[in-house]
Design goal:
TIM Barrel, alpha/beta, two-stranded antiparallel sheet, 8-stranded parallel barrel
Length: 342
């Protein structure tokens, strides 16, 4: 096996292990969502049975605006993990993203850890991805096209992760040319390109630059949930230096509000909010919410039933919030009022 592949495979396995076994949440910074409360509607004027949590994402109907976002793939144990996540997502009719497919470009050994997802989830949106540093080097979309075909993806995500690459012992900090690479993928790939941060947030300024090159799907993935800076800190020898960046980033609530303000009659795009928050993210302007670490922990600790129960609990909570805010649809929930109570 090529040395680079072995390194990539080992790193992916370490990431999952640290995510499951260590406290890698932000230490002092929060998402900002906990400061917000829904305004209770004592006269909702609808029956609970009329509340419809379904939505459309990537031209497919979901039971709720939820995606289990990318984390796993590219090492032996990921086959079982990805299969089980995909099976539950298909059953519950929600979207799924696979982990970084960089390893799949280096070697075919673990291709099935990715392709198994589509085998067991034929009808839901499946999203592939690769890191921004890889995209910066591309002169054509041939490699991403192969990754799209590997999982028959409905969209392909580019991870903006400069903070992670900065702290990662094997990281690449060559980020000049990323925007040009993204524009190339938008033009050449047959599926939509999603641009996603991984926990440090996307500002309105960055979102505008992405929209200007044709990106129509943005995942702000703000700070306050899982800290990938924290994960990489635990992998380093000089942890004292790296820990200074553990809480770096734009809180999720602020990132959603900033980017959502760019939506208008002339600028339409799909806004995804990773990192938890659920209904509050939707009310702030997101079209879809995504989660990774809690889903992976539920699956690892309690099996498929644990993941299923977590998703169903989230859906039940969403339906309750929609009823108590008088929101018959997800579009109505996006207009629900949030306030800061003192």
């Amino acid at each position: 096996m090529p040395r680079r592949t072995r390194s990539t495979t080992s790193r992916k396995q370490q990431h999952v292990a640290l995510t499951l076994n260590k406290n890698v949440s932000f230490k002092s910074k929060t998402t900002g969502l906990e400061q917000l409360e829904f305004v209770h509607n004592a006269l909702p004027e609808l029956n609970l049975s009329e509340v419809n949590t379904s939505t459309t994402f990537l031209d497919k109907t979901l039971a709720a605006p939820l995606m289990v976002s990318s984390m796993t793939g590219g090492y032996k144990d990921a086959l079982k993990i990805n299969r089980q996540i995909a099976e539950v997502c298909e059953e519950q009719r929600i979207a799924m993203g696979v982990g970084s497919q960089r390893q799949a470009l280096e070697d075919k050994l673990y291709h099935r850890t990715f392709s198994v997802v589509r085998e067991v989830a034929p009808s839901i949106p499946i999203v592939g991805n690769i890191g921004a540093a890889e995209v910066a080097k591309m002169t054509n979309a041939d490699a991403p096209q192969r990754l799209v075909e590997l999982i028959r993806a409905d969209a392909f995500t580019v991870h903006l992760n400069p903070l992670q690459e900065f702290l990662q012992p094997e990281g690449s900090t060559d980020f000049r040319g990323v925007l040009k690479g993204i524009e190339l993928l938008v033009r050449q790939l047959p599926v939509p390109v999603i641009v996603k941060e991984i926990g440090a947030g996307i500002s309105a300024h960055v979102a505008r630059r992405l929209l200007d090159v044709g990106v129509n799907y943005i995942d702000v993935a703000g700070a306050g949930g899982t800290s990938w800076a924290g994960i990489e800190t635990l992998r380093r020898k000089d942890r004292e230096f790296a820990s200074k960046f553990w809480d770096w980033g734009i809180p999720t609530a602020a990132a959603i509000q900033e980017v959502a303000e760019l939506k208008s009659s002339t600028t339409k795009f799909t806004l995804v909010a990773s990192g938890g928050g659920g209904a509050k993210c939707i009310a702030l302007g997101a079209d879809l919410t995504a989660s990774a670490r809690p889903m992976l922990k539920a699956l690892t600790e309690e099996g498929k039933s644990g993941l299923r129960n977590l998703i169903q609990s989230w859906m039940q909570e969403l339906k309750g919030i929609m009823f108590l805010t008088g929101s018959a649809s997800v579009a109505d929930l996006q207009k629900a009022q949030l306030v800061r109570y003192t």
